[in-house]
UniProtKB/TrEMBL annotation:
Signal peptide: none annotated. This is Tyrosine specific protein phosphatases domain-containing protein. SUPFAM superfamilies: (Phosphotyrosine protein) phosphatases II. The lineage of its organism: Eukaryota, Sar, Alveolata, Dinophyceae, Suessiales. InterPro entries: Prot-tyrosine_phosphatase-like (IPR029021), Tyr_Pase_AS (IPR016130), Tyr_Pase_dom (IPR000387). Residues 38-87 form the Tyrosine specific protein phosphatases domain. It comes from Symbiodinium microadriaticum (Dinoflagellate).
Length: 129
């Protein structure tokens, strides 16, 4: 973490464009990111496209800061930025992260989310996994 009088506190997570490889955990830096998320007054996520890596991390940060379940967080973010979370592997990492944070929600929430995601994937033409 660094800081500047003009910028305030900042955290640069070493996730470069085109990474991590699918088998490498997107949330490997989550403990550090989570600590920052909980203490920073304002958050800004910046990424090449802002569709998968940063969207997954931003959604996790939003859920943690707002104490919202995965389902509520996905609905809120998809309403603001449709087309995010297109990478199935990153989505699995997001679910695991929020499960560990105690924000997965009820079994009913998970089932509703599963159906909403399937409908969304069919609408945008995602390949079957």
């Amino acid at each position: 973490m660094g800081s500047s009088l003009n910028q305030g506190p900042f955290l640069r997570s070493p996730i470069e464009y085109g990474t991590p490889p699918i088998k490498k955990a997107l949330f490997a830096h989550w403990p550090e990111v989570s600590a920052f998320v909980r203490s920073a007054p304002v958050l800004l996520f910046h990424c090449q496209a802002g569709v998968n890596r940063s969207a997954s991390l931003a959604l996790a940060a939003y859920a943690v800061r707002e104490s919202k379940t995965l389902l509520a967080s996905v609905r809120d973010m998809m309403a603001e930025r449709p087309g995010i979370l297109k990478n199935w592997h990153f989505n699995r990492s997001l679910v695991k992260c929020l499960r560990d944070e105690g924000l997965l929600g009820s079994a009913e929430d998970v089932e509703v989310l599963r159906h909403e995601v399937a409908a969304y994937e069919q609408q945008v033409g995602f390949p079957k996994h």
